[in-house]
Amino acid sequence: MKTLQKEKPSLHVFDTLESEVRSYCRSFPTVFTKAKGYTLWDAAGEEYIDFFAGAGALNYGHNNPVLKQKLLQYIQEDGVTHSLDMATEAKQQFLERFRQVILEPRGLSYKVQFPGPTGANSVESALKLARKVTERSTVIGFTNAFHGMTLGALSVTGNKFKRSGAGVPLHHSVSMPYDGYLGENFHTIDYMENYIQDTGSGISLPAAIIVETIQGEGGINVAGAEWLRRLEKLCKEHQIVLIVDDVQMGCGRTGTFFSFEASGITPDIVCLSKSIGGYGLPMALTLIRPELDIWEPGEHNGTFRGNNLAFITASEALRYWENNDFSKEIIDKGELLNLRLCSMVSSFPQLKGQVRGRGLMQGIAFETNGVAESLCELAFSKGLIMETSGTDSEVAKIMPPLIIDQTGLNRGLDILEQCMKELAARHYALA
Ligand SMILES: *Cc1c(COP(=O)(O)O)cnc(C)c1O
């Protein structure tokens, strides 16, 4: 925990030159200089435990030493850095490793598209392909979904504020209630099935349904395994393309490489980004069921689909998935996290919190707006980086790098507990 308060680094150039659109630098107002594993340091030498992990882009930690070694060696040897989508050795090795370590052991036969380096790029390519394959235009998204900030991705995103940024009507999409959205006893798949089957519903047969197995940005809402299986069945029955957006929940966040593994479903298309590059380097994949891969050469193109530095670290990061050890570790740490969060919530009942999530994607949803924000602000002042999620920022989200050890996890949670205690005291004072 922090002791002596040193002078805060100046944010002057950011405040005066960088666009008003900047966001995370407002939540974490300091200038960072160095990072390692689950720790960040700022220009004043203050240390921060990272429970945000680059919004999920740093599952293997900051500057992971093994990945760094491979990257340095590749640069030293003048390996190709940028290649458009020309064939390079780095890409070849990545594709071979991905097939061998991820696809084959899971019995998956996906073709791999490199859609451009961001999650939104992957989502756009998935939507386009589903429309091309089915020759239908509507896509169903879910309440509180988040799929990225480009127009297609926004059209299936729930958040009103983000949607309004589009500046044009967001068409050809329909929002349906996510699992649990209308209360525990309301079966939202039945509801959706009615809409899809009934010729009087006013909704035309969709090209695709796009879903997150856990809605990270949307407030850590978890879809049940049975719900996902029923969704898959509904899609199969109506030849609707099922797209799982695994941009944030993939690469081990929930305990398995793909977040849908526990449910047993096999989506038609999977979007991956954030941690797939392994080192925080931009990279995204769109995984496509082979029969759906009807793209014409160059039909969905882009300059930055050949980030070879990311291919090098992505290949190396797959070493974590060569056996089940890493998966078990994540699940164990997830249990520890859950126990501690549940204990905090019951220790400070006046904060009216509820624990949500699975694996190393968990958080506390608060009944009163503003509590999660105050908590994250207080946490930052004590050297812990974490963010809120949910449309009203009502959830304090905890997503440390997956490589964090139990000591680091406990240190961060000790800070969080202290913050909960201080906030609870404030609430007593107000009551
Ligand atoms: C972050 C995210 C995206 C968008 O990825 P970008 O790289 O920011 O474009 C899409 N879907 C989900 C679920 C995400 O968490």
Automatic annotation (TrEMBL):
Transmembrane segments: none annotated. The keyword Transferase applies. Its EC number is 2.6.1.76. The keyword Iron does not apply. Pathway: Amine and polyamine biosynthesis; ectoine biosynthesis; L-ectoine from L-aspartate 4-semialdehyde: step 1/3. One of its GO terms (molecular function) is diaminobutyrate-2-oxoglutarate transaminase activity. InterPro entries: Aminotrans_3, Aminotrans_3_PPA_site, Dat, Ectoine_EctB, PyrdxlP-dep_Trfase, PyrdxlP-dep_Trfase_major, PyrdxlP-dep_Trfase_small. Belongs to the class-III pyridoxal-phosphate-dependent aminotransferase family. This is Diaminobutyrate--2-oxoglutarate transaminase. The lineage of its organism: Bacteria, Bacillati, Bacillota, Bacilli, Bacillales. The gene is ectB.
